[in-house]
Write a structure and sequence with these properties.
- By secondary structure, this protein is an alpha/beta fold.
- Helices cover 24% and strands 20% of the residues.
- It has eight helices and 15 strands.
- Helix 2 packs across helix 3, helix 2 crosses helix 4 and helix 3 runs parallel beside helix 4.
- One of its GO terms (molecular function) is carboxylic ester hydrolase activity.
């Protein structure tokens, strides 16, 4: 059974090519929603942290561990601050792409992890049963959304229990969150399994739900599931939904929220309006942090979780503008044929968190959004070229150096 759901972790856009390739013509949706956001321009880097704070390497001390859950183990990514702790923890749950769940890559929500590590948290990201390299098979439960959520939540419970025994975790300060299918999973966890973990203080739901187009009345199934969860959740929760979400259209998000709260469940809905071309990508974008973190910070303070910045954490930094050419001078981009120039024109239509890379042999790639479009553009270009790829443009600037021998790369 093919269940059409979504994974925000794949929210960036990219295109690449050799001499014969043609990229997509417009951002998905074809409209620029960013102008209405009450936030700094996309692509800006936050001001530097207090230089007296200890620094965490840009790798965020990332490790991959196996968490036991009944007869299997869960492939789990852990990001953490330096030191022995104990640290507060967020367990963050991924969404689902169409197709075989084992084909999904290991989830790495870098933008979210960077912000929480900056504030002294350990970020734990379990791939649930049947996903990526976790054992077992995906627990779909047919069209029964409520049962699906509870099945997913068992893996969250196993993760919370296992990590709470680790010496670097403060088991009295835990929050559980998730995006898309993972947002529904977080709420389902709060409705049943959270009772066994008194250190869990709250739930965060980013665009949560489960879309099953092949199930008749899937919207009603989804709304009813949230209603059932709301009868049992005793933890406060914070919900994020946007008006141009490609998955939850019309008034569905409001219906889910109403069904959840009408039984007395405590929840706060944040309607953040339109985000770029699709509100469903918010948490997977570094640009989205400036939208959700202020609300999350206030929520964490309300439930007794720490909110002060504890570490310096480096972020992707673009090379400096070189003045080689104006950004919109398509013919100035070196080494491209007509297909590559078409790709560059497409790049110019993307949102301003973007990067375009090219090699001497004419391979090229652009990327927009996600955590680090510079690295994505370079890596995608390099897959098509035996010559080194270099960044030509980042955000609104041309960063190319002509015949200098300098390779323009992203730095942190």
């Amino acid at each position: 059974m093919g269940i059409k759901t979504w994974l925000v972790g794949c929210s960036f856009l990219c295109a690449f090519g050799t001499l014969q390739s043609v990229a997509h013509a417009e951002p998905i949706g074809g409209t620029r929603q960013s102008e209405g956001l009450q936030a700094p321009a996309f692509g800006q880097i936050p001001s530097a942290a207090d230089a007296t704070l200890p620094a965490v390497d840009n790798g965020l001390n990332e490790t991959v561990i196996r968490i036991p859950e009944d007869d299997i183990t869960l492939q789990t990514t852990v990001f953490k601050p330096n030191g022995a702790g104990p640290f507060p923890m967020i367990v963050f749950n991924h969404g689902k792409l169409p197709g075989d769940a084992h084909d999904q890559p290991r989830n790495r929500p870098l933008a979210l992890a960077r912000e929480f590590v900056r504030h002294g948290y350990v970020v734990v990201v379990p791939n649930r049963r049947g996903f990526a390299e976790s054992g077992g098979n995906y627990a779909g439960n047919g069209c029964n959304v409520e049962a699906n959520g509870y099945a997913q939540a068992r893996d969250v419970a196993a993760t919370v229990a296992y990590m709470s025994e680790q010496p670097y975790i403060d088991k009295t300060h835990i929050v559980v969150g998730g995006t898309s299918h993972g947002g529904l999973t977080a709420i389902a966890y709060g409705a049943h399994d959270a009772a066994s973990a008194p250190g869990v203080r709250g739930l965060i739901n980013f665009s949560g739900g489960l879309r099953q187009d092949e199930c008749a009345g899937w919207q009603k199934n989804l709304t009813n599931a949230f209603g059932a969860y709301g009868e049992n959740v005793r933890l406060p929760s914070l919900w994020f939904y946007g008006e141009n979400d490609s998955v939850w259209q019309g008034g569905l998000a409001g219906q889910m929220y109403t069904a959840f709260t009408e039984h007395g469940a405590k929840a706060q809905m944040v309607d953040f309006g339109a985000y770029k071309n699709d509100a469903h990508r918010l948490v997977g974008d570094r640009d989205g942090v400036q939208i959700w973190w202020p609300q999350v910070k206030a929520f964490l303070a309300q439930i007794g979780m720490p909110t002060a910045v504890q570490y310096q954490v480096s972020e992707p930094q673009a090379p400096k503008a070189t003045g080689y050419a104006s950004l919109d001078a398509v013919t100035a981009v070196p080494f491209l044929d007509e297909g590559g120039r078409a790709g560059y024109r497409n790049f110019l239509h993307q949102y301003s968190s973007r990067a375009f890379a090219v090699s001497n042999s004419g391979a090229w790639s652009w990327a927009e959004g996600g955590d680090d479009p510079m690295s994505v553009a370079l890596a995608s270009c390099q897959k098509q070229s035996s010559d080194p790829c270099r960044l030509y443009a980042v955000n609104e600037d041309v960063v190319w150096r002509d015949a200098s021998g300098d390779t323009q790369t992203a730095s942190r």
